[in-house]
Design goal:
heterodimer, A: 112 residues, mainly beta, four-stranded antiparallel beta sheet, 0% helix, B: 116 residues, six-stranded mixed beta sheet
Chain lengths: 112, 116
């Protein structure tokens, strides 16, 4: 199993550009989430999904969109990048609510 | 509102000494509790979890954690620290009840340094 994979590993964007961060898992997990990690703030939930076709907002959803057309994939879209979105982004998946999450290696995004 | 507090940003301990990383939580119902570790430039790795039952939970790499319902705490412990344990540690909570989409809430992390 590859686990949770994320691409790209690094990305630099200019303000106003859009892009999609890819996330895929091969564990047949229903729950998937996107987090951003900023110094001193821990991990903050952006969006999450409890199954294909079902998504919901987390703590900091503004400026991001998600979709879940398959169990395996959960892409995160930045609509119009802003410097405040400079962060490290992690995708995670879990089998169910009582189970631990598995994290991808992260995407380090810089917006200039 | 659900929340997790890690009161210490940094913990330093000498190699071979016992270590404790503190975590307290606030949830409306009964919690699932988790500890994760993050090494530099890596994703989070699962260490251990409390679901129900015995209050002392054993996990990976010799770590354990004690669930204390009255104090709403879930402190991470290890009897003898290794230099390789130096990393960032996160406590997380998830409510057992509530809407199906309830997700994990993470603390802000504690940086552990084990001094040789």
């Amino acid at each position: 199993n590859a686990g949770v994979t994320q691409t790209p590993k690094f990305q630099v964007l200019k303000t106003g550009q859009s892009m999609t961060l890819q996330c895929a898992q091969d564990m047949n997990h229903e729950y998937m989430s996107w987090y951003r990690q900023d110094p001193g703030m821990g991990l903050r939930l952006i969006h999450y999904s409890v199954g294909a076709g079902i998504t919901d907002q987390g703590e900091v959803p503004n400026g991001y969109n998600v979709s879940r057309s398959t169990t395996e994939d959960f892409p995160l879209r930045l609509l119009s990048a802003a410097p405040s979105q400079t962060s490290v982004y992690f995708c995670a998946s879990s089998r169910d609510r009582g189970f631990e999450q598995y994290f991808g290696p992260g995407t380090r995004l810089t917006v200039t | 509102a659900q929340s997790v507090a890690q009161p210490e940003d940094q913990v330093k301990v000498a190699e071979g000494n016992p270590l404790t990383v503190k975590c307290t939580y606030s949830v409306s119902g009964n919690p699932y509790l988790f500890w994760y570790v993050q090494y530099p430039n890596r994703g989070l790795q699962f260490l251990l979890k409390y679901i129900t039952g015995d209050n002392l939970v054993k996990g990976s790499y010799g770590f354990e954690a004690e669930f204390n319902k009255s104090q709403t705490s879930f402190h991470l412990k290890k009897p003898s620290a290794l230099v390789s344990d130096s990393a960032l540690y996160f406590c997380a909570v998830r409510d057992k009840t509530g809407k199906p989409g309830n997700q994990f809430y993470f603390g802000t992390g504690t940086s552990l340094t084990v001094i040789p």
